[in-house]
Amino acid sequence: MTRKPMNLTAYEIMETLVAFPTVSRDSNLALVDWVEEYLGSYGVTARRVPDATGRKAAIYANVGPEVAGGVVLSGHTDVVPVDGQDWTFDPFAVTERDGKYYGRGTCDMKGFDAIALAMVPHALACGVSRPLQIALSYDEEVGCIGAPPMIDDMVAHLPRAAAAIIGEPSMLRPVTGHNASAMFQIDVHGFEVHSSKLPQGVSAIHEAGRILQWVNDWNDRLMAETPDPVSATFDPPHTTTHVGMIAGGTAHNITARDCGLRLGFRVPAGDDLGRHEAALNAMLEELDAGLRAKNPKAGVTWERMNGVPALRPEDGGAAEALIRRLTGDNGTHVVTYGTEAGQFQERGYSAVVCGPGDIAQAHQPDEWIDKDQFHKGEALMRRVVETLV
Ligand SMILES: [Zn+2]
Questions:
Q1: Is 3 a residue whose pLDDT tops 80?
Q2: pLDDT at position 2
Q3: Ligand 1 centre from 340 Cα, in Å?
Q4: pTM
Q5: Can you tell me the distance from the alpha carbon of 344 to that of 351, in angstroms, rounded to the nearest whole number?
Q6: What is the rounded average pLDDT for all residues in the chain?
Q7: 57 CA distance to ligand 1 middle (Å)
């Protein structure tokens, strides 16, 4: 079947993508169908990598010859919710106002997705000798869950690209490092008695307090450490441990049976997440054993919810070199938020984060991308494509 090329501008593609309300909890298949149709209109065959439920999929494609040495432009299709946010504009449409494009995902990161897709006809027109690969994931905003199976599938089916550009908003600066992170759900189980009989009970809340005390002590200890040279470029330059949620207890006069916590680590690229996990596990095992000794019904259970590997600055990496050459930016840029770049790097790609817009506008009500950034981003990606000729 021959179809006519869709011939859309990057802006028009962004309008289309933003109109799909692909909040992470919902299906992204309508958007993926559209991307497949768009690519198909240029004769480009895409591959889907569905999730276990079949309600979501990643999609990727190779444009040009299937040889090594290409460039991946990578983005995510999901966006954060707008619930409870006060929006002036329709979040699922693009509104241009005062040099800004407003809409959910314009900045994070359908703007870049649109630019990447707009490069398909450019790559074909240029007659690239090495491929442009487009990779769009799902569930990035809920812990970078969708990219690993997508990248594994790419490795299995395509020659590995020489460079992966993850277009998260970086004001088009080459970001060569970011934190690793991991999150844990910890549940403390106590034993309920009337609080007047406190010694016969086990308060899950009081025992959870020991975990909080460990968190404070651990943070104090980490802050007192001299950072390694890589972590020293991060702000803060040391790992942080944080409990963002805690809930427990049923009444003021009952020793709490349950108390749950969400604990997370953010680890600069020079530090090792493993040592923090090991320390946490050791502390929880000891607490668990102590509680079981007090009462067989008491104890601690915990589970690692998700984790994102760090992006480690590469020594002469191809992705970084490409962006530095095209932008002339030789500064050191590292960020404390996680992206899918570490997951590409973990699977053998040279990776860099570089995309239009400022992370400060991500996830906000009235999210926007600066018009000038968007079009500069488009111009930069055109030049990236031209290096593949
Ligand atoms: Zn993002």
A1: no
A2: 54
A3: 9
A4: 0.90
A5: 7
A6: 96
A7: 17
